[in-house]
Amino acid sequence: LPGPVEVVVIEGGNHLFHTVEDEAVSAIDFKTGTRREPLPETYLHQQTVYSIAASRLFPDRQVTFEFWWMG
Q1: Quick one: which of 27, 35, 53, 56 has the most CB atoms within 10 Å?
Q2: pLDDT tens digits, residue range 3-54?
Q3: pLDDT at site 66
Q4: E strand or H helix at 46, and its extent?
Q5: 16-19: long-range contacts (C-beta < 8 A, 24 or more apart)?
Q6: CB burial class (10 A; 0-12, 13-18, 19+) of residue 31?
């Protein structure tokens, strides 16, 4: 058996799921202000977690993730 498993609970909410026919879905999170380059590490983690969650919600679709900047 493998060693101990660490469980991490992440709480958050996605702002929008945009579906394109029955093939793809984009998970979109709105951000205030202007786009920051490079993206902060926390945003990269958020992108990864939300992409995984969307892939589980829509297992038969290609999933992409986008930040939309509202500044």
Answers
A1: 27
A2: 888 887 778 787 889 998 889 999 999 999 899 899 999 999 999 999 999 9
A3: 94
A4: helix 41-57
A5: 17/54, 17/57, 17/58, 19/58, 19/61
A6: middle
* 20 Cβ contact partners less than 8 Å away, ≥ 6 residues apart: 26
CA-CA-CA-CA torsion sign (71, 24, 64, 59): positive
Task: Name the residue among 4, 6, 2, 26 with its Cα closest to residue 15.
Answer: 26
Encoded amino acid at 55, one letter: S
pTM of the full structure: 0.77
- Token digits for 24? 């793809």
Residue 13 tokens read as: 């909410």
Strand partners of residue 65? 27
Tell me if 25 sits within 8 A of 19, measured CB to CB.
Answer: yes
Is the CB of residue 27 less than 8 Å from the CB of residue 54? yes
